[in-house]
Amino acid sequence: MNEEPTTDLKSLPYWQAEAKGILRAELQRRGVTYAKLAKLMQANAMHETERSLANKISRGSFSFVFFLQVMRVLKVTHLSLAPTEAVASVLYSGQPAQYGEDQAPSLGRKE
């Protein structure tokens, strides 16, 4: 039986925000800056600079290959795929999320 494709999937900008949110959360958990990440990647024969990393990650449209490279140089073995709206404490619509006091840790972003 063929089912109609679902129309309730979130938009591409949502998924780009999710991708960069997950990647940024992993960097923050490990205390890794873009400068340090660039050095780690260069040490592993990946040609990235602090600026190129900032640009790629801010767009959120990086490839899964790039994501895996970052996870490998960070030595990530387990990854949380919980929606990053809770981590960032802001819904991607731009509206503040409603969370309890023990949720929504800061990512160090200035709002």
Give an overview in words:
The chain has 111 residues and is mainly alpha-helical. It has 5 helices and no strands.
Unreliable segments of 5+ consecutive residues: 89-111
By oligomeric state, this entry counts as single chain
Order of helices and strands: HHHHH
Structural class: mainly alpha
Largest sheet: none
CA radius of gyration: 16 Å
Tally of contiguous helical segments: 5
- The share of residues in extended strands comes to under 5%
Average pLDDT works out at 76
Q: How many beta-strand elements?
A: 0
Shape category: globular
- What is the terminal-to-terminal distance? 48 Å
Provide the helix percentage: 40-55%
Write a brief structural summary.
With 111 residues, the chain is an all-alpha fold.
Looking at this protein, list some descriptive labels.
111 residues, mainly alpha, globular
Helices and strands in order:
Elements: H1 12-29, H2 34-43, H3 50-59, H4 64-73, H5 84-88
Helix pairs in contact: 2-3
